[in-house]
Design goal:
This protein has 5 helices and 8 strands, in the order βαββββαβαβααβ. With about 210 residues, it is α+β, with helices and mostly antiparallel strands. The protein has a single domain, classed as Alpha-Beta Complex (endopeptidase fold (from Nostoc punctiforme)), CATH 3.90.1720. The protein has a 6-stranded antiparallel sheet. The longest helix has 16 residues. The radius of gyration is 17 Å and the shape is globular.
Length: about 210
């Protein structure tokens, strides 16, 4: 059976909300995203919908070269799975994307984790809860409820393979396919001129 890879991106942006969460978790990375390609072109999570408002959130497709991500540190892991399970995960995310207006960020769920309370809210997710829910399309990946899952729990999933660690803006596998109108300009990875954000949701995360 053919195998494929999904990618799990852990980030720390240094925002005030990230620092606040770190006071409780004492972990470096407090945001996690799921991607279906090594270039991180198809990267999804739950987080901010507005660049400067951490309290308006929901399902988002991330642009990892923009917003708070520009100064983020990260770790990227690959996870190899059978193609059938890869397709199930992708279908699950496509459903989220198709119904994205129905979903909101699960702030209450964050407080429930502190109390170790398995709170199940309809159409509300935080980042690690979302990633755990999608990964659970492959059976027995995570041995706890996604409602109680933290980024650290996801980092402890067996058989993850470290792809990259360091500044996200230096991630070496980004695929820059767009061309600049000014052909005399030397284009370098992560140059903002390469990105057209009209078809992406603005998503700098906590």
């Amino acid at each position: 059976m053919e195998e494929k890879k999904v990618y799990i991106l852990f980030t720390a942006t240094g925002s005030w909300l990230t620092k606040l969460i770190q006071l409780y978790t004492r972990k470096m990375y407090n945001h996690v995203s799921l991607s279906f390609d090594e270039q991180l072109n198809e990267t999804y999570s739950f987080g901010r919908k507005k660049a400067h408002n951490p309290f308006i959130g929901g399902f988002v497709r991330e642009k990892v070269a923009e917003g708070l991500f520009k100064k983020a540190t990260c770790e990227v892991y690959s996870y190899t799975i059978p193609e059938a399970e890869y397709n199930l995960m992708k279908q699950r995310v496509q459903y989220f994307e198709a119904k994205k207006d129905l979903y909101r960020y699960n702030f209450l769920g964050l407080f429930a984790i502190v109390l170790n309370y398995d709170l199940n809210r309809k159409n509300a997710f935080f980042c690690s809860q979302f990633v755990a829910t999608v990964l659970n399309e492959k059976k027995r990946v995570i041995d706890k409820s996604p409602n109680l899952c933290t980024p650290q729990d996801l980092m402890d999933v067996k058989h993850l393979q470290l792809v990259y660690q360091g500044p996200l803006n230096a991630y070496p596998y980004q695929d820059n396919k767009e061309e600049s109108l000014d052909t005399s300009l030397e284009l370098k990875p992560w140059n903002p001129i390469l990105y057209n954000s009209h078809d992406y949701i603005n998503s700098p995360y906590v």
